[in-house]
Structures are given as structure tokens and as C-alpha cells.
Design goal:
The chain is mainly beta and about 270 residues long. It has 2 domains: about 5-165 and about 210-245, no CATH class; about 165-205, no CATH class. It is built from 3 helices and 15 strands. Strands 1, 2, 3, 5, 9, 10, 12 and 13 form an 8-stranded mixed beta sheet that branches.
């Protein structure tokens, strides 16, 4: 049994709806609504959850649409004033290879391959901006020979209730999170004003003095549309994640492994 299978047993995604629509342009659209397992949030907390082997349409398919939202225990959508989503959901296709050291992640088609791996949801707030792939294109997924495909849903959310500075908390400003180390235990640079290194899992943004620390249950609800793959109907889409200008540095670790560092910087545009 592959290691990824063992990781996934406690994190099954609940499918509550699956349906089909009439044929469109020669193919039938299938639709599904999915939920991640429930997790809890308290005011000011930053939550990061990884759900391995998430339920996802199986077989050789063309993915046509994806959107997501955070909901409470009653199924009500969380308002933007109460929660902020960072890079959620990162839906990552994973290939499980027949080898003892587990699985590898499928990366996008460059140029930020290896740095920005996700296929969907990358950005500071992706609710309200669904991913729709127009005809005749589709994101090709499914069952390459000798490989067992799985999907990972990554949820990163910040509870903004009773925070005195909602925007600054959403932007992960360092002075409100009072952190000195990043998620890897390395000291933050003195000039680092804020960002992802200040709001990793369990970091706490400053809340009001009279804040009521009440936990609430949250799930990620996501919607998918897809069709059976047909080479006569679909052209495969290559997924590219674009980022700010990036300078790649490579170096060798003491044990001989090659590591990379990506430094983002502004560069004047060349004359046209």
C-alpha cells in the first residue's frame, strides 16, 4: 500500500451532490459539490489544513470549472468581513508512483514550477472568481499508465472576527502577529514587514481587548464541473502560474543536494 493511501484514511471528503447536464457542444457536463472535513477557528487565528486523497472525479476527464467558498456548520457562507482566504483552495494533483518513498506532486507548466505548484485558487482571495475553462479546452486529468492519481486540498484561512485591524490581519502584517520566526523556525529579516511568513498555521493576529473567543466550525465547500475526455472535442490546457519577477539562485547543501532560492524584485521594463 502506498504511503499516500495511509495518510488519506482520516481525511475523506464528503460528496453531497453529483449530477449531469444536457449535452453541450457534443459532450455531457457532470457536476459535483464537495466538502472538506470540519475544522474550528477562533478570532484572529490563522489555520492551515492539508487534506490528502480528497474525493475528486475519477477517470480520464476534462475539468471545465472550479469554485469554492468557506461555510459554517449551518452551511452559510462566511462573509468577507469575518474571514480571509489565502491560497485556498490549492487543489494539487498528485501522482503516486510505485516506490517506497511515497508520492510526488504534479507541477504546473512553468515558469514558477516548483515555487507555485497549485492548479487552482492561488491568490489572496479567490472566492467569487471561479475558474472556467472555455471550449474547446479542458484541463486533462486521469489515469496515466502505471500511476495512481490523487488530489490534495490545502486550506489556509484567517478568522477576522473581533480583530481591530481586519485588513492588516488579512495582509499578515508582522506587528499584529508578533512573530519573529518563519514557519521553518528561521528568524525573519528585520525589514520583513509582513506576508505569508507571519501567518502560517496557528499564528495569532491581535484581537480587541473585549473580544469573545468563541470557536466556530468551518468547512471548505467546492464545486466542480467536468466531462469525459474526448480528443475529438477537447484540447488539453497547460496551467501556468505567473508571479512577479523572480531571480533564481541555486546552491548545494552540505549533503550535496541542489536547493533553490527565489528572490522577487522589481525590474524596469525594457523599451519597446
Amino acid at each position: 500500500m502506498f504511503r499516500v493511501v495511509l495518510l488519506s484514511l482520516a481525511t475523506l471528503i464528503l460528496v453531497i451532490l453529483a449530477s449531469t447536464s444536457p449535452c453541450t457542444n457534443g459532450y455531457q457536463i457532470k457536476k459535483g459539490v464537495f466538502y472538506t472535513p470540519r475544522f474550528e477557528m477562533t478570532p484572529g487565528i490563522s489555520v492551515v489544513k492539508y487534506y490528502y486523497n480528497s474525493d475528486f472525479p475519477r477517470g480520464h476527464i476534462a475539468l471545465k470549472s472550479f469554485r469554492a467558498e468557506l461555510v459554517d456548520d449551518k452551511g452559510q457562507v462566511l462573509p468577507y468581513s469575518d474571514s480571509h482566504n489565502l491560497t485556498i483552495p490549492d487543489l494539487i494533483e498528485s501522482e503516486v508512483l510505485p516506490k517506497v518513498d511515497g508520492f510526488i506532486e504534479v507541477e504546473n507548466s512553468r515558469p514558477c514550477n516548483g515555487v507555485n505548484r497549485p492548479y487552482f485558487g492561488l491568490g489572496t482571495e479567490m472566492r467569487g472568481t471561479p475558474t472556467v475553462v472555455p471550449d474547446p479546452y479542458g484541463i486533462e486529468v486521469g489515469d496515466p499508465a502505471g500511476i495512481d492519481e490523487r488530489w490534495i486540498v490545502v486550506v489556509h484561512a484567517i478568522d477576522l472576527r473581533d480583530t481591530g485591524h481586519k485588513i492588516q490581519c488579512a495582509e499578515c502584517m508582522r506587528d499584529l502577529y508578533n512573530v519573529t520566526l518563519d514557519q521553518f523556525g528561521k528568524p525573519l529579516k528585520p525589514d520583513y514587514k509582513g506576508g505569508m511568513s507571519c501567518c502560517y498555521a496557528n499564528c495569532q493576529c491581535k484581537v480587541k481587548e473585549d473580544a469573545l473567543i468563541v470557536a466556530r466550525g468551518v468547512r471548505l465547500r467546492y464545486f466542480l464541473e467536468w466531462a469525459d475526455w474526448d480528443t475529438s472535442l477537447f484540447l488539453p490546457v497547460r496551467v501556468h502560474m505567473l508571479d512577479v519577477t523572480d531571480q533564481l539562485k541555486k546552491f548545494k547543501t552540505p549533503n550535496g543536494e541542489i536547493q533553490t532560492i527565489h528572490d522577487c524584485k522589481l525590474v524596469e521594463a525594457p523599451p519597446l
